[in-house]
Specification:
heterodimer, A: 203 residues, mainly beta, six-stranded mixed β-sheet, five-stranded mixed β-sheet, 4 helices, B: 240 residues, alpha/beta, Elongation Factor Tu (Ef-tu), domain 3, 2 domains, six-stranded antiparallel β-sheet, 12 strands, globular
């Protein structure tokens, strides 16, 4: 660790005491919910939305909005960490576990590419999507997920930096190898663990 | 670097200690800092650096700031920083940092909101959202001035214009609150007519500002018939 000290710098912001140990290195506490998107915000009506599991699977899966809502929903209280340095603590989404979506698909690879309406992609190993660690969510804090935050549905992988939680998610493509998605090709880390501060390529 | 920005991406460097060589007050809220770097590398216009501050007790704060300078200005970067009242890093830069100070930073990062010189570009900026667009404008002036590039730039008042002494004929300003005395140009928020009057269609579109600014500007751009794939956006999270 470098011993550099910034002349005259003092802490000015403080997370509430009871949550400060939930801030990963280099992150700061943010009460709001900022929006970061690389292009125009897509307009996807719920009746147009569908979710797929495809690629290297024994059985492709597909749900319409109505079919998706017949799956078991659960509340997901979590902390989220954006690579641009803000963290939002103690927020709640509601959706369907990826374990449920993969049940019956018979995945034959260890990796997945999440893909979205509008063309966004992000790669996530299946190990980070299964075992109660990832969801496809349609609600945030009791309300339908706003369009600017990925509504009608987004992936939620709260233990990784939030660019992995693909907005406007349309599917998961199971793959037998890892390939970088959109931000992973454009300079960001292939996995993105906030507790290891895996922000950029060489971290 | 003679003309085209190189397309190949370079792995960004680690943390390094730069030296502030020049501080320029752009507006009452915005200052530009020219920082010389011992391990400088060329950036693409639109990229950012991360800055890290460390207090004597070990407390650290990090933020990202867009580069305002052209990569032709070798050996360092210019970061143009908007002072946010409830911020932690930007007030430090405004109130404490002087010429000769050292700051810790690393970069350049992110290679999507970048202009590589491959096509004409329409730039739309709100407030300090003009900073990464200025890197594109400055680089184009020095490398391919014949290539069409227009900047549509929305600010609140006459004293909020960043880089005022460098804006030329390619720039269309609009003042949303209080235009300077004698202003006869556009006032109010950016509208479709202002975007249409830039006269560019077959080009890339870069939009940078607050999320609200970007959302409304992009809607106007798409209503003019641009394809969503032509449009790249950068939105401020809360920062500071």
């Amino acid at each position: 660790m470098s011993d550099f000290i910034s002349r005259g710098f003092k802490r000015r912001r403080r997370a509430p005491d009871d949550v400060s140990d939930r801030l990963p290195p280099g992150q700061y506490y943010e009460a709001g919910f900022p929006v970061l998107t690389a292009g125009p915000t897509p307009h996807i009506a719920p009746e147009e939305w569908g979710m797929r599991v495809d690629g290297m699977v024994g059985s492709e899966q597909e749900w319409t909005w109505a079919e998706f809502h017949e799956l078991p929903f659960e509340d997901v209280p979590c902390d989220i960490h954006c690579v641009t340095k803000w963290s939002k603590l103690g927020t709640t989404f509601r959706g369907v576990s990826v374990d449920v979506l993969l049940d019956g698909a018979d995945p034959q690879g260890q990796y997945a590419m999440a893909y979205s309406y509008g063309g966004y992609t992000t790669n996530v190993p299946l190990a980070d999507l299964t075992g109660g660690k990832a969801w496809v969510v349609t609600e945030h804090d009791g309300d339908p997920l706003p369009r600017e935050h990925g509504g009608p549905a987004r992936l939620l992988v709260p233990h990784l930096y939030f660019w992995k939680s693909a907005k406007w998610v349309a599917g998961l493509r199971v793959m037998d190898h890892e390939e970088p998605g959109f931000w992973e090709e454009n300079g960001y880390h292939i996995r993105g663990d906030p507790w290891k501060e895996e922000r950029y390529w060489n971290d | 670097m003679e003309r085209l920005t190189p397309v190949e991406q370079k792995a960004p460097g680690g943390w390094q200690i730069g030296t502030v060589k020049r501080v320029k007050e752009e507006t009452p809220r915005v200052k530009s800092f020219r920082i010389e770097l011992p391990m400088w590398m060329e950036h693409l216009p639109g990229q950012h650096y991360d800055v890290r501050l460390t207090a004597p007790d070990g407390y650290r704060a990090q933020r990202s700031y867009s580069i305002a300078s052209s990569p032709l200005d070798e050996g360092g970067v210019e970061l143009t920083i908007d002072c946010l009242d409830d911020g932690e890093v930007s007030p430090y830069f405004h109130d404490v940092v002087m010429e000769g100070d050292q700051v810790e930073l690393r970069g350049p990062f992110a290679s999507y909101f970048v202009w590589r010189g491959e096509s004409p570009a329409l730039l739309i900026g709100g407030g300090s959202g003009v900073v990464p667009l200025m890197a594109m404008l400055r680089h184009r002036r020095r490398t391919m001035p014949e290539l069409a590039m227009k900047l549509v730039y929305s600010v609140r008042t006459g004293e909020d214009v960043i880089f005022a002494d460098e804006l030329g004929e390619e720039t269309q300003l609009t003042f949303t609150r209080e235009p300077p005395t004698g202003w006869s140009g556009h006032t109010g928020r950016i509208d479709g007519g202002l975007i249409e009057s830039a006269g560019l269609r077959d080009c890339m579109v870069f939009v940078c500002g607050t999320n609200g600014f970007v959302e409304s500007a992009v809607e106007l751009v798409l209503a003019q018939g641009f394809d969503p794939m032509q449009v790249r956006t950068e939105r401020f999270g809360p920062s500071g």
